[in-house]
Specification:
Number of strands of chain A: 7
Distance between the termini of chain A: 19 Å
Number of helices of chain B: 4
Largest sheet of chain B: 6 strands, mixed
Oligomer: heterodimer
CATH superfamily of chain B: STAS domain
Strand order of the largest sheet of chain A: 4-5-3-2-1-6-7
Shape of chain B: globular
Helix content of chain B: 25-40%
CATH superfamily of chain A: Histidine kinase-like ATPase, C-terminal domain
CATH architecture of chain B: 2-Layer Sandwich
Strand content of chain B: 25-35%
Radius of gyration of chain B: 13 Å
CATH class of chain A: Alpha Beta
Strand content of chain A: 25-35%
Largest sheet of chain A: 7 strands, mixed
Structural class of chain B: alpha/beta
Number of strands of chain B: 6
CATH topology of chain A: Heat Shock Protein 90
Structural class of chain A: alpha+beta
Distance between the termini of chain B: 21 Å
Chain lengths: 171, 119
């Protein structure tokens, strides 16, 4: 597919909090980053961090798979801190409030299953910020400083809903 | 002995035994959705207490922390009865997450099943 056909711009996806949709979110975001000219390694990292964030929402914010939505937003911030471009990834849920100060990586010297998601997100992304949303739920804002291999300005967008029925192209 | 997989979309493509070694061939992405089946099948294998379990990941392009957790659980279970778990054909993306999680040093990794079986 030609870059001109997509022009990814600001992207918004809504999926249901069901692990079966993780692959859909990964594929959509990975493809959008690839088409936008992101370095493959960066695109892999962002895709992994997003997967871990969505997994945490399903497991912890919603307490397991359910029919509630998770909104994913991607946007490019040009001239971030007057140095470089950055990719902003926002994951919004409507689950329970969690004190952001309690969301921490665990001690990696302790070899045991689980508890690695936050560490992976913090390692892969350059900035990570959790916040409670007053209307309910949590928001995770992740930032990745980026090197575009084939620069493509993000101007328009795509909105899609998986697990629902909405797929539309935003102007 | 080979147990063919009745579900072609399954994360466990094949399980077989060679000279007392159990070999699992996994395929596709392993995330929160598919790690459930992976865990069930691995626990099934571990209940037979094989001396060595070889997990072939050469057809796994993506794994997240839920897949890692399952690998760690299998490794810990096998150690409990004196067995071992070896990984084969670990792709770069999967290797990266093992490294990020500092788990790359706890799993013996090999390029091929033959190499793992010979070790």
């Amino acid at each position: 597919m030609m870059k001109e056909d997509i022009n990814p711009g600001q992207i918004e996806l809504t999926i249901l909090a069901n692990p079966a949709y993780l692959c859909v979110a990964r594929a959509a975001v990975r493809k959008a980053l690839e088409i936008s000219g992101f370095d493959a390694q960066d695109a892999d990292g962002v895709t992994l961090a997003l997967d871990e964030a969505l997994t945490n929402v399903i497991r912890h914010s919603y307490g397991g798979p359910c029919e509630k939505p998770i909104i994913i937003k991607l946007s490019q911030i040009p001239n971030y801190q007057k140095k470089t471009s950055a990719l902003e990834v926002v994951v919004r849920d409507f689950g329970k409030h969690v004190d952001p100060k309690t969301i921490k990586s665990r001690d990696l010297n302790e070899v045991r299953p689980g508890g690695l998601g936050v560490h992976i997100i913090q390692t892969v992304m350059d900035e990570v910020e959790y916040s409670c949303v007053s209307e309910g739920g949590m928001q995770l804002r992740m930032l990745k400083l980026i090197q575009l291999t084939d620069c493509c300005e993000m101007t328009s967008g795509v909105r899609a809903s998986f697990g629902g029925s909405r797929i539309e192209k935003a102007q | 002995m080979t147990r063919p997989n009745s579900n072609p979309g399954s994360v466990v493509e094949n399980i077989r035994r060679e000279n007392g070694v159990t070999i699992l061939v996994l395929a596709g992405d392993i995330d929160l959705h598919r790690s459930v089946e992976m865990r069930e099948r691995l626990l099934e294998v571990m209940s037979e207490k094989p001396e060595t379990t070889v997990i072939n990941l050469s057809r796994v392009d993506f794994m997240d922390s839920s897949g890692l957790a399952t690998l760690v659980e299998a490794m810990q279970l096998s150690r409990r009865y004196g067995g071992q778990v070896k990984l084969v054909g670990v792709q770069q993306r999967v290797r990266s997450i093992l490294e990020i999680s500092r788990l790359d040093s706890i799993f013996p990794m090999f390029e091929s099943e033959a190499e793992a079986l010979a070790s």
